[in-house]
Amino acid sequence: MAILLGTMLIHGMQPGPMLIKDHPDLFWGAVTSMYIGNGMLLVLNLPLIGLWVKILKIPYRFLFPLILFFCLVGAYSLNNNPAEMVIMLMFGVVGYFLRKFNYPLAPAILALVLGPMLEKSLRQSLLMSSGSGWTFLTRPISLAMVLVSVALLLSSVMPAMKRKREDLAKASDED
Predict the structure, then answer these.
(1) In whole angstroms, what is the distance from residue 26 CA to residue 23 CA?
(2) What are the residue boundaries of the structural domains of the chain, listed by start?
(3) Quick one: how far is CA 29 from the chain centroid?
(4) What is the distance between the alpha carbons of residues 113 and 58, in angstroms, rounded to a whole number?
(5) What distances in angstroms separate CA 99 from CA 17, 158, 159, 168, one per listed residue?
(6) Cβ atoms 153, 161 nearer than 8 A
(7) Residue 69 binned pLDDT confidence (cut-offs 50, 70, 90)
(8) Helices (DSSP H) in 17-81: which residue ranges?
(9) Given this model, what pLDDT does residue 135 score?
(10) Contact yes or no for 135/125 (Cβ under 8 A)
(11) Which residue among 30, 56, 97, 162 has its CA within the 20 to 30 Å range from the CA of 86?
(12) Is the pLDDT of residue 42 over 70?
């Protein structure tokens, strides 16, 4: 959904109820493609269900290298650039650590999609204010957004700090 939202914003389309009126070709094209996709899935998956079950029985130690190989071939074949294979592997390692430490991936995807637009807007704001960051604290709406952001950041950090303080207090009590 984040990718779809970002794509629409990049192409100058305003998501919302007026999307159907302003861009009916896009809306009905998406609806039609969903119907066609569901029909194709039905036609392909019903006869091939036995094959999918057999693929699930392949041990992970054989399946993982095959998946990695196909991903590397796909990354290389887009632009015939070996650097893109390295980038794919780096993002795979980052994704592994994000999953290992229970970080949600949806905000990361949202940041990748909306990040360039945020940077453009920040650059415009700084140009209008002659490079002064104080403009974000002097306007009521931007000040409210900054305060909400700080409050959300503190609300996610405070429980960890409280636990650490309690652990230190228990450790000093035991001594």
Answers:
(1) 6
(2) 1-57, 59-128, 134-175
(3) 25
(4) 35
(5) 36, 22, 21, 28
(6) no
(7) very high
(8) 19-22, 24-56, 60-79
(9) 81
(10) yes
(11) 56
(12) yes
> How many Å apart are CA 102 and CA 98, to the nearest integer?
6
Q: Dihedrals φ, ψ of 139, to 5°? A: -95, 135
- Cβ distance 2 to 113 under 8 Å? yes
* Torsion from C-alpha of 166, 168, 171, 175, nearest 10 degrees: -120
Count how many residues are written for the chain: 175
Query: Burial letters for 21-55: b for 16+ Cβ neighbours within 10 Å, e otherwise?
Result: eebeeeeeeeeeeeeeeeeeeeeeeeeeeeeeeee
Mean pLDDT of 133-160: 86
Provide φ and ψ at 105, rounded to 5°. Answer: -85, -20
